[in-house]
Specification:
- The protein contains seven helices and twelve strands.
- The strands form two sheets. Strands 3-4-2-1-12-11 form a six-stranded mixed beta sheet. The protein has a six-stranded mixed beta sheet with strand order 5-6-7-8-10-9, covered by helices on one side.
- It is of the alpha+beta class.
- The protein has one domain: Endonuclease/exonuclease/phosphatase (Deoxyribonuclease I, Chain A), CATH 3.60.10.10.
- GO terms for molecular function: catalytic activity.
- It holds the Pfam family Exo_endo_phos.
- This is Endonuclease/exonuclease/phosphatase domain-containing protein.
- InterPro entries: Endo/exonu/phosph_ase_sf, Endo/exonuclease/phosphatase.
């Protein structure tokens, strides 16, 4: 009754819309039309035995079901495991880079990115780079989703794994060199992964790190970098299975340029 008395006599167009606020609710309202992709980042420590957990989260958790990118470090996969066996749902396409002999090890490592086809179908995903060395594992994808703000022509997602025994200075140099080769001024650049003790801002100072809480013990090992300030809000989710890394859910907070600019009034004289 208080609401009715409060709004009595007002123009219906000016009444409060009574919409729930918050980054998560805005993302749910826009789903696959957010200005930047929503991302689930996890250090799986063997993706093969975490599939039941992943499929359950996709089935019963709306945020994970609508998530546009699932990025996994330490997938521990090999060429004997086909993509269709690790596909968590029919509306996700799988893109991966398994650890090779170039890393100096025959097991462990590996990267996997799963793309939601409701946001970007498989025909619009291009693999720009795959790299595996003793200091750095890298998978770079270029995506042309169905919707992007007008200031972006595509999304470039870099998934990175730097092993704990790696030479961090060498790894950052390799990462910076790879970044300069694929960077495009009209593409939305996102770098995610397990960096261990490395800090990409030392090599690329114009990037912002969006994960601010510990992801393993009391240390922040899993990072998300973009060139845009306040573009993501990071939330901690439970780890997959017995993994000792927290799962990170990245909610896009980026406000497109059209909404940031103040309206300009012009007078046209004829």
């Amino acid at each position: 009754m208080e609401i009715l008395r409060e709004n009595k006599g007002r123009d219906a167009r000016k009444r409060p819309r009574r919409k729930r606020a918050g980054v998560r609710n805005r993302l749910r309202a826009r789903a696959h039309r957010a200005p930047l992709p929503s991302i689930l980042l996890a250090n799986a420590q063997s993706l093969d035995n975490k599939l039941n957990d992943l499929r359950a989260r996709i089935k019963f958790q709306r945020d994970i079901q609508d998530c546009t990118l699932l990025c996994f470090n330490e997938s521990w996969l090999n060429p004997a495991v086909p993509n269709h066996t690790i596909q968590p749902a029919e509306f996700f396409s799988v893109h991966r880079m398994d650890r090779t002999a170039d890393s100096g090890k025959s097991r462990g490592g590996g990267l996997c990115v799963m793309v939601n086809n409701s946001w970007c179908n498989n025909a619009n995903v291009v693999t720009l780079a795959r790299s595996c060395s003793p200091n750095l594992e890298l998978l770079t994808l270029k995506l042309h989703p169905f919707y992007l703000p007008r200031e972006f022509t595509s999304v470039i997602i870099n998934t990175v794994y730097i092993p704990p025994q790696a030479n961090m200075d060498t790894a950052l140099c390799e990462r910076h060199e790879a970044l300069t080769q694929v960077q495009h001024r009209d593409a939305a650049l996102i770098v995610v992964g397990d960096f261990n003790s490395a800090n990409l801002k030392c090599a690329v100072p114009n990037l912002y790190q969006h994960v601010t809480f510990p992801t393993r013990g009391n240390r922040t090992l899993d990072h998300c970098y973009t060139p845009y300030k306040d573009s993501y809000k990071a939330l901690a989710h439970p780890p997959f299975g017995k993994s000792d890394h927290a799962t990170i859910f990245l909610l896009p907070k980026y406000k497109q340029r059209l909404k940031r600019e103040a309206p300009v009034q012009r007078e046209v004289v004829r």
